[in-house]
């Protein structure tokens, strides 16, 4: 059967690769939900980047500051667990913004991250994390994520380039080039449902169905969906080993770009 799965598509690299391989071997369509790529704000920023309106992207930063109570984790036997959920704030909440960041900026080169559990005594996964990300095009990024905030604040994602800046704040984009500023907000007929989920599940589901009918890959296929999983898992490994992790991500690989003949210690 064709499959459209929620994020994360898997909590290990091996499982994600097995899903992609199975879909290819069976001739079936595999898609992964990252609905925020389809938001009007995200599309406007993507267009500005691709058209070169911002110039070369020099830096990017993101803040995901939400609140998840102890009851949120106690309501199920899988949330807040490494073996069933795969982690905490990074793989559950922040992964959407991590996906947007790499989709807008480009392929990662390496990252270094740290996570901790600060406010939830009954879980052992991350409820706060930060990461430094270096992209292959030279862009430098930083990310801060927590579910210990006092409320669910709008996500904040910024790109600053040689010619201008772009901000995504919640479901709004603010793009400034020179003395001109453009604001893009979600269309009124698309703003039903919980705000922090995003509004574009319908758009992504429609694209998935069209991809099946047209015999093409959906806009977010299995391989695209795996990119964010790789970044999150690299952040976890970086924090545990206290080393930078290079891409393409290979779990447990030596912490150097060559990898072969590496004398780095863990």
Can you characterise this structure?
The protein is 30% helix and 24% strand. The protein is α+β, with helices and mostly antiparallel strands. It has one domain: Dihydrodipicolinate Reductase, domain 2 (2-Layer Sandwich). The strands form two sheets. It has a nine-stranded mixed beta sheet with strand order 10-9-8-7-3-6-5-4-11. A two-stranded parallel ribbon has the order 1-2. The mean pLDDT is 94.
List the helices and strands and how they pair.
Layout: E1 3-5, H1 13-26, E2 30-32, H2 40-50, E3 57-65, H3 70-74, H4 89-105, E4 108-116, E5 128-135, E6 140-146, E7 156-161, E8 164-169, E9 172-177, E10 180-185, H5 201-214, H6 222-241, E11 245-246
Parallel strand pairs: 1-2, 3-6
Antiparallel strand pairs: 3-7, 4-5, 4-11, 5-6, 7-8, 8-9, 9-10
Helix pairs in contact: 1-6, 2-4, 4-6
């Amino acid at each position: 059967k064709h499959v459209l799965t929620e994020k994360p598509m898997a909590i290990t690299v091996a499982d994600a690769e097995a899903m992609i391989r199975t879909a290819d071997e069976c001739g079936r369509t595999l898609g992964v939900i990252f609905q925020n790529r389809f938001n009007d704000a995200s599309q406007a920023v993507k267009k500005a980047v691709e058209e070169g309106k911002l110039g070369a992207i020099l830096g990017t930063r993101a803040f995901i500051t939400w609140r998840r109570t102890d009851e949120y984790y106690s309501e199920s036997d899988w949330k807040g667990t490494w073996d069933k959920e795969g982690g905490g704030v990074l793989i559950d909440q922040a992964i959407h913004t991590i996906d947007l960041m790499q989709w807008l900026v480009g392929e990662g080169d390496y990252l270094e991250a740290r996570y901790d559990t600060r406010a939830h005594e009954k879980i052992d996964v991350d409820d706060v994390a930060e990461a430094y990300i270096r992209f292959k095009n030279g862009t430098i990024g930083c990310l801060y994520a927590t579910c210990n905030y006092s409320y669910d604040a709008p996500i904040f994602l910024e790109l600053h380039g040689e010619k201008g800046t772009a901000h995504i704040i919640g479901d709004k984009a603010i793009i400034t080039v020179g003395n001109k500023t453009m604001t893009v907000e979600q269309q009124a007929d698309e703003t039903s449902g919980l705000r922090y989920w995003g509004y574009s599940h319908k758009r992504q589901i429609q694209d998935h169905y069209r991809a099946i009918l047209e015999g093409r890959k959906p806009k977010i296929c299995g391989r695209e969906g795996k990119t964010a999983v790789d970044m999150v898992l690299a952040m976890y490994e970086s924090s545990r080993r206290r080393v930078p992790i290079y891409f393409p991500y290979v779990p447990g690989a030596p912490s150097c770009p060559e990898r072969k003949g590496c004398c780095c210690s863990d």
